Amino acid sequence: MGPVGGPVITVAAVVFRDAEGRMLTVRKNGTEKFMLPGGKLEPGESAAQAAVREVAEELGVRLRLEELALLGEFDSDAANEPGHLLRSTVFTWTGEVSPDAAAEIAELRWASLAEIVEGAQFAPLTREHVVPALQPS
């Protein structure tokens, strides 16, 4: 269940890291928060299929389903839809990537995990769930 009476948005996202360990974040047109590349599932789509499709649309990066590794499933407040619960399936992908901002992406930003944790400009999912999940326990 989400917030009382609050709608649930179901999304899939992918974590990309560069050689310095920074994470790729994106800001969509008309929004202020940086978040992971990804988006809402279409009817009949698995989370992995949605992640692959969204990354191709948003970044021009072609992934294969078998290259994705499940990081986890997380519930958080939606960054851009107040009162909505975001239910996310987050994958990691290992390799070099050269993304281009496409579709609804206004800006790309590579950020260190420390920058993300400290930065209010990053989405709650990324800050509160994904970064801790990436940290070795």
UniProtKB/TrEMBL annotation:
Gene3D superfamilies: Nucleoside Triphosphate Pyrophosphohydrolase (3.90.79.10). Keywords: Hydrolase. Coiled coil: none annotated. PANTHER family: 8-OXO-DGTP DIPHOSPHATASE-RELATED, GDP-MANNOSE MANNOSYL HYDROLASE. Residues 6-135 form the Nudix hydrolase domain. The lineage of its organism: Bacteria, Bacillati, Actinomycetota, Actinomycetes, Propionibacteriales. Its cofactor is Mg(2+). GO terms for molecular function: hydrolase activity. Pfam families: NUDIX. It comes from the Bacteria. The keyword Oxidoreductase does not apply. This is ADP-ribose pyrophosphatase YjhB (NUDIX family). InterPro entries: Nudix_hydrolase, NUDIX_hydrolase-like_dom_sf, NUDIX_hydrolase_CS, NUDIX_hydrolase_dom. Belongs to the Nudix hydrolase family.
